[in-house]
Amino acid sequence: MEGNNTLNLFVDTQHVRLLTITLGGVNPAQITLPTADIILNSICDPDTNTKALMHAIEVLKASTIPVINPPQNIFRTTRDMSYKHLKGIKGVLMPKNIRITPRRISEVPLLLEKEGLEYPYIFRSAGEHGGSGMALVKDEKDLSLLEQFAFDGRDFYAIEFVDFCSDDGLYRKYRIVIIDGKVYPRHLIISKSWNIHSETRAELMDSDKKYKEEELEYLRHPHPALEQQCLEIYEAMGLDFLGIDCHINEKGEMLIFEVNTCMRIIVDNPIDYTRPFIDHIRSAFMEMLESRIST
Q1: CA Rg, the chain, in Å?
Q2: What pLDDT, on a 0 to 100 scale, did the predictor assign at position 294?
């Protein structure tokens, strides 16, 4: 379901029985939690699932069952709140994120000027995470790019654009999974464009072995600086499991694109050389579950 993640795919169902509770259309006061050892909160998007998160908070209010990813802390993962929680962490650059509700294109520059956000910036609808549905606005002439959006009262994000082009003229987006405060690299995608998503892997990486080897090197040996930086991100966000999409420079400094629990980690047909690393992430998740149950 949109706005939910697939934490259930991390669970070894040969040893664990999963019960699913779907929130929606029912007064949370009427929901009785079944007996369980632990609760996994799979509601991941506070922009599209605000009501479901509020229901989850209400349902869990009187519960003493341990919770993975407390729903109240999911609200920290909106782009504007992530900016507020993560700015100031050493070695982490969190571009300025502004949330606005313009009714027409002409209002956008005025609202951003009021918030102190200058060109260039990325403009996108709240609640979207893919590579489509966003525009890079470099100057006033690019405002026509915003005609693709519906200004009907919905919220938008304007995000300070920081050019992260490497010396070879290419762009690199790293994905990291944090489980219980520890770093697990998930993938690296290298592209000719700043707008990197899963489909852009085919541009270079499917045909050039050196880029696959670069990804493998990242998966095997992530920069040592990430350990402390990700621990501080983990503590700031208050979530047991989360993903980070970012650029990482040679010093190990991170340029954050987004931090949330919505990222797809387990896929049906993973690239063969990534399977051991995905299995490692799944094992780490199960170890966390077991440790939380035992305490």
Answers
A1: 20
A2: 67
**Per-residue pLDDT at 132 exceeds 80:** no
Q: Tokens 């949370």 map to which residue?
A: 28
Q: How many CA atoms lie within 13 A of 28 on its CB side?
A: 14
Q: Are 124 and 133 in contact (CB under 8 A)?
A: yes
3-state secondary structure of 262: coil
* Poorest-pLDDT segment among 31-35, 52-56, 168-172: 31-35
Question: Which CATH code, of 3.40.50.10490, 3.30.10.20, 3.30.420.10, 3.30.470.20, is assigned to 76-92+164-294?
Answer: 3.30.470.20
CA distances from 31 to 44, 51, 52, 62, 64 (A): 20, 15, 13, 12, 15
Measured N-to-C along each axis, helices 79-86 and 226-237 cross at an angle, to the nearest 10 degrees, of 120
Weakest-pLDDT range from 29-33, 158-162, 282-286:
29-33
